[in-house]
Amino acid sequence: MLLLLSLGFSVTGPGFLSVENLLNIGAQSTILLLIALPMTLIIMTEGLDLSMGAVLTLCGVVLAMVMVATESLPLALGAALLTGLAFGLLNGALVSWLEIPPFVATLGTLGVAQGLALVATDGQSVTGIGEAIPLIYAGQLLGVPLPIWIAAVFYGLFHWLLYHTRFGAYVFALGGNREALKFSGVRINVYLIAVYALGGLMAGVAALLLTARMNAGHPTAAIGLEFDAIAAVAVGGTTFDRGNGWLPGTVLGVLAVGVLRNGLNLVGVPSSVQVAAIGLLVLVVLLIESFKGKA
């Protein structure tokens, strides 16, 4: 799908294959990748996190407000990470301890996070964050935008965590055979909470790039981004049952969504239609998977 989209937009989209545009796609896709990585783990546990976009937005607002008040990037980033972690722990506790379905639990925390962001800012953007944060998104290293380097580092961490640690093995087991994991003496609630907490932390990290990109904290900036993350994970081959997940596929899924959005922008398609196009992409991929399964 990524190859087909790239070929199509190379013909119809003016300047699509230029180095500048390809680097732009990579940089713009980094924010989505940072939340799609933990979303992959969450879906592998047969869970879902609908609140991630709203939590990312709240973390961005907190980051901007603390930065304006203290002019300290470490304090601002720490506040954003703590905010994301708090919501991640809350989601994990609701799903594991109270056994509330993930769809319902995270839908509730979505409303809470979105409401807090709007109340804290009175619906207005938080500006005046200085020059340090925007430089993170605008900077380059060896000709490659800094956001791409940051995303590559976090992909490496998640790859190691999922494929080379006991935690990763338990993530596979949480979706593949939770009862066997429970009978082997593993405290599954602890690891389930940890997966959602990791999602909250990554929302805080992604908030840094989002705020740097927009040069402000916007109370609605990332609303709906969780849809793109779920779409990227699904397109990348991770299924919603049996713990089947493929982290490199998530990267390909993120790039597919990024190429689709960028190509549609180049040909002048409205943003509202782009959302429908991403939904159609997911349906096409799931249809192909269905035919493969029957075969």
From TrEMBL:
Domain of life, per lineage: Bacteria
Keyword Nucleotidyltransferase among UniProt keywords: no
Q: Which GO terms describe its cellular component?
A: plasma membrane
Q: Where are the transmembrane segments?
A: 50-69, 75-95, 102-120, 132-158, 188-210, 267-288
Q: Which InterPro entries match?
A: ABC_transp_permease (IPR001851)
One Pfam match, given by its short name, reads BPD_transp_2
Ordered alphabetically, the record's keywords are: Cell inner membrane, Cell membrane, Membrane, Transmembrane, Transmembrane helix, Transport
Q: How does it sit in the membrane?
A: Multi-pass membrane protein
What does the UniProt entry say about where the protein is found?
A: Cell membrane
Report the GO molecular function annotations.
transmembrane transporter activity
Membrane in keyword set: yes
Name by which UniProt lists this protein: Sugar ABC transporter permease protein
Tell me what organism the protein belongs to.
Answer: Cupriavidus basilensis
Cite the source lineage: Bacteria, Pseudomonadati, Pseudomonadota, Betaproteobacteria, Burkholderiales
